[in-house]
Amino acid sequence: MARHSVTGLLPVDFFTRGYRISGHLNTRAKTVGDTLNDKLNSYLQLIDVYIARVNNPGEIIASYAYAQLLKDNLLFAIVSAEESFSKAGRSVSYFGKQRHKAWLALSTFEVEGDFLMTGRSADFEAYLAKGVDAYIPIQDGVARVSAFPEITFGGEALLVNRTRIDLFCLSQVS
């Protein structure tokens, strides 16, 4: 995905329990991660929206010039890696970032990918309990529809809604 087009709009795929919503989001000087984690706005304004059911992603069931999307009901969004991190929430550590393989269960999806955590030792419990961002970035992610495991969606990064995670599993990679 390209950063911003001439119009300043960025294409993003959003997923709810039953739908894939593809549209353009004006992120201005923010990343998609910043926009999703912005607590002052509960809706996203989308332009040129296409809607498909997750169990039949090749069939567009509706298209609209404009839509408002409630952030709380999103399960995840697929974005480029550079759009996944919040500029405001970036942290620096002498020890760098630890990469973990992650597997997440959501209501209708299973998500796999790499989870990066800053620091010498991963304090996973503290991250989940005290983390400030509502959306957790999973790098090189793949989302599988639970009821139809042959249907997958992937991208450089998936921004997963923290409140919609049923199970979050990690294993050490490097």
Features:
174 residues, mainly beta, SH3 type barrels, 2 domains, 10-stranded antiparallel beta sheet
What does this 3D model show about the protein?
- The protein has 174 residues and is mainly beta.
- The protein has 2 domains: 9-80, SH3 type barrels; 83-172, SH3 type barrels (Roll).
- The chain has 3 helices and 10 strands.
- The chain has helices spanning 32-37, 81-84, 124-130; strands spanning 9-15, 19-26, 43-53, 56-70, 76-79, 97-105, 109-118, 135-145, 148-161, 167-172.
- The chain has a 10-stranded antiparallel beta sheet with strand order 4-3-2-1-5-9-8-7-6-10.
- Strand 6 and strand 7 (109-118) form a beta hairpin.
- Residues 1-6 have low confidence and may be disordered.
Per DSSP, what share of the residues sits in E-state strands of 2 or more residues? over 45%
Number of domains in the coordinates? 2
CA-to-CA gap between the ends?
A: 27 Å
C-alpha geometry: globular
Count of DSSP H/I helices: 3
Average predicted local confidence, pLDDT: 86
Overall SS class: mainly beta
Elements, N to C (H/E): EEHEEEHEEHEEE
Please write the CATH class name of the largest domain: Mainly Beta
